[in-house]
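Example record

One chain of 602 residues, shown exactly as stored in the release files.
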Amino acid sequence: MDNLNYAVIGNCKTAALISVKGSIDWLCIPDFNSPSVFAKLLDDEIGGSFDIVTDESYEITQQYVKNTNIVSTVFRSGDNSFEVLDFIPRFKNTDNTYHIPSEIVRYIRFISGTPVFTVRFNPRLDYAKQPTKIVDEGEYIKSFTTKGDYDSIYLYSDLNFEDIIEQRQIQLKEDAFLMLSYDEKILNQTLERQYFKLQKTEVYWLDWTYNLTSYAMYNEEIKRSALVLKLLSYQKTGAFLAAVTTSLPESLGEERNWDYRFCWIRDASMAIHIMSKLGHLNTVKRFMKFIIDIIPDKDEKIQIMYGINREKQLQEEELDHLKGYKNSAPVRIGNAAYLQKQNDIYGVLVDVIYQQFIRFKITLETSEALWTIVRGIVRIVENNWHKPDKGIWEIRTEEKHFTFSKVLCWVAINRAIKIAKVIHKKKYLNDWQKLADTIKDNILENAWNEERQAFTQSYGSSYMDAANLLMASYGFIDAKDKRYIETVKQTEKELCYNGLLYRYKNEDDFGLPTSSFTICTFWFINALNSIGERDKAKKMFDQLLKYSNHVGLFSEDLDFKTKELLGNFPQAYSHLALIETAINLSEGELTEKEEILGSILH
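Predicted structure tokens for this chain:
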């Protein structure tokens, strides 16, 4: 594997990664955060995979079925060809509920000739901790653990079971299917039933993308990124995952390997902000319910992250038996960052709550619950804004007075004031405005580095931080303000390398960062656009889009030199920033419909 050349499929309950060669190398089931069934991604020897194998004469091509989360992998050797359509079913039932089973369907479509292949079905349940036994049960192939915690999965197919288990060559003469389920099925699993699921799932995704807001440019890139964000939303609770994987390294051979199958308040709130812009309100409503559910008590500490089922304790452990992606150990599950204090999350959260009040009709009960959360956050900010924290980048050792954290504390109070005005709660305005002014004055006095002529990473620091590029987009400072323009220029001077950005260049817990954090480059492009350097921004954006993988997906990081995708994948942060940048660059451009209308009128 030279790169993260994977397509992702999912149904807002679980997800899988399909390699460019058609192998399922990552699947956690029944839910996103369940133990893995296939983890070849993290150990190509013992992790387990579900592969369709052909000889070397076959050319393999892969793409998404247009405007869906269904992956098409075509195998072609001369006149012999077939297609594997991989998907996880998602569609509406007749009672308007969603059909989101814990299963993955591989619909094998015969195209021409006499194609042959081998099925390599090699599950390794529970992160491959113990052996997995595979037996032919007549109705299905059952795989189960024989030691440790018991788990099992069921493979249904109209192909010969012995051919699958013994990995014999199969000649395809007509359409066939492989369907892996966490649950034993009650109904008979036929080819016709899988075809029905395929058609219903395709219609669901086509309908979903059709209802996205259209823009003047980059609509295809926006659609693909929006489909990724939708896939990362958890239907059951409304939580938003940062990514579907764990322990994909930010830099090969280092220790920056973390489990991202959790809901970070910051990442999720930013994603929801984008989804609301794109017009998908149900996803937004579910997330706001998630927020209300996890913050029930007025004095309860707000964590930076939660489990997707509202878990509040996310103990971290290492799986020493797995060698890691490209031998980059350790493999971690759980994430100790949940214990950190990061003051920026308050601003992000109140900002997204403010969007709900001004964009959508929300029930009285919901608005009252959100107002209670807002007032609680104001109290927390009032008591904590002046204290050091771990910052947006989750520094695990020293706490500092990070500029971005302070700015987002100001955002929290600023948006709380706006909400109070919307709902006519004037008695809070004077005190809150004084607090906002105090925070802002403190930032302007202490975060500005006169020698550097820029806002730096933390008070008294000379280091630059890409997060400070967001100061203008959050409304803390005008984009045309000389201090912001100089900050953008100094950020480029210190952090830009080979067309990509470092988060920062000072050493942290693990030394100097050696890869580019993808979202930072998007932030920089937005900043360039906001200060009037549109042509430069667009050129840089068009170049950055070329660094996605073969199906348009981004991970968390990019290698500065090789442009290899690194870090957890696909990354919500990267894709939400892509959408926001595309929207900002599209502003002022005429849409195709507007151009046609204009030509008719003239």
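Notes: The domain at 211-594 is CATH 1.50.10.10 (Glycosyltransferase).
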